[in-house]
Amino acid sequence: MKIAIHDNAGSFSDRWIAYCLQNKIDFKKVNCYDSDIISILDDCDGLMWNWNQIDYKAALFARQLTKSLEKKGIKVFPDTNTSWHFDDKVGQKYLLEAIGAPLVKTYVFYTAKEALDWVKGTSFPKVFKLRGGAGSINVSLIKTQKKARQIIKKAFNEGFRPVNRTSDLKDRFRVFRRGKDLKSVKKIIGGFARLFFPTEFERFSHKQKGYIYFQDFIPNNNYDTRLVVIRNRCFGCRRYCRKNDFRASGSGLCKFEPELFDKDSIQSAFEIAEKLETQSVAFDFVMLEKTPKIVEISYCFPMEGASDCCVGYWDRDLNWYDSALNLQYFMIEDFINDLNRK
Fold first, then answer.
1. 106, 217, 292, 299 from 97: Cα distances, Å
2. Of all residues in the chain, what percent carry a pLDDT higher than 70?
3. What is the pTM of this model?
4. 12 in helix, strand or coil?
5. How far apart are the C-alpha atoms of 194 and 219, rounded to whole Å?
6. What is the mean pLDDT of the chain?
7. Residue 217 near residue 246, CB atoms below 8 Å
8. N or C: which end of the chain has fewer CB within 10 A?
């Protein structure tokens, strides 16, 4: 058995490679952007590649490469079930509705007329999102019909940049006010630079236009619940909202004590992960009265930060285990076990 790992410093691959070295697993580093990647993988049984939403190149072909390798008989992490809907809130809407998952009520329109007609009969506020983006950067609260009409007209005319630079800079200032360290200062400088010099991702990404996406706003939530399910383990992080803001994702304000987490949410996360047949999935839940509702999902998450601070996990029977965690090790352990069973 041999595993191929796309080596990208700072990604999950750092820990996957460390695991292979520690456990004497036969592996080789590969470059998934190589034109000959299919033949390069001829001597491999599996490929692990932690591609993300700010890699414009991966957005062009990662899903297609994954499906092609699966047809060739090579196992992939993340596989098609795990990744086809990644960073695509529109795709997630249809998928979660199809399996009867408890998704926050979501609306998508593909003409301005349909969207404007809907606005006349709906209530506000509503949450507006672009289909892609992490950390709440492309998320805003629309409080009035007038603002909704403005957003809709923009969506079907000039469109939206793939990254909201102003929102990103504000978030960097929030982090600075909490910590005021050198790292946060550098982030503010970088945020100012982005106002004038777009990143590679922005330069090579298209504007978001031709559709509009809204979700119901669920009030009285000053936090959301991030639950990560990796096969038969569930890990939790309670993420608190920014000050004077409804958004929790990307706030950096987290707690991890197991008693904070709703068992119905954990049970729901396990059940939905099984229906989706995912290798790894992160759910963002909010509470509608006492019912957990999904906001969105993702196969991956920041490697350092909240996921490293989890203090244990639940098994499929909701038993709790105190344990120091390395979620990326769980991923590769499961992957190797699957290859050995193949």
1. 9, 18, 15, 18
2. 87
3. 0.89
4. coil
5. 33
6. 90
7. yes
8. C
Of residues 281, 284, 299, the one with CA closest to residue 52 = 299
Nearest alpha-carbon partner for 256 in 325, 177, 303: 325
Q: Provide CATH 3.40.50 ranges for the chain.
A: 3-85
Q: How confident is the model at residue 189 (pLDDT cuts 50, 70, 90)?
A: low
Secondary-structure class of domain 89-216 per CATH: alpha beta
Q: Are 212 and 155 in contact (CB under 8 A)?
A: yes
| 229-260: pLDDT as tens digits | 999 999 999 999 877 777 776 667 889 999 99
* Cα distances (Å, whole numbers) of residue 194 to 164, 171, 238: 10, 13, 30
pLDDT tier at 182 (50, 70, 90 boundaries)?
A: low
* Contact (Cβ atoms closer than 8 angstroms) between residue 328 and residue 16: yes
- Enumerate the CATH 3.30.470.20 domain ranges in the chain, comma separated: 223-325
Q: Which CATH number fits domain 3-85: 3.30.450, 1.25.40, 2.60.40, 3.40.50?
A: 3.40.50
Class of the domain covering 223-325: alpha beta
Q: Are 176 and 185 in contact (CB under 8 A)?
A: yes
- The tokens for 230 are 């990796």
* pLDDT above 80 (res 172): no
Confidence of residue 176 (pLDDT cuts 50, 70, 90): very low
Q: How far apart are the first and last CA of the chain?
A: 10
**Domain span(s) for CATH 3.30.1490.20 in the chain:** 89-216
Per the DSSP assignment, residues forming a β-bridge with 240 are 223
CA dihedral 63, 67, 68, 73 (to 10 degrees): 140
Nearest Cα to Cα of residue 17 among 337, 340, 279, 331? 331
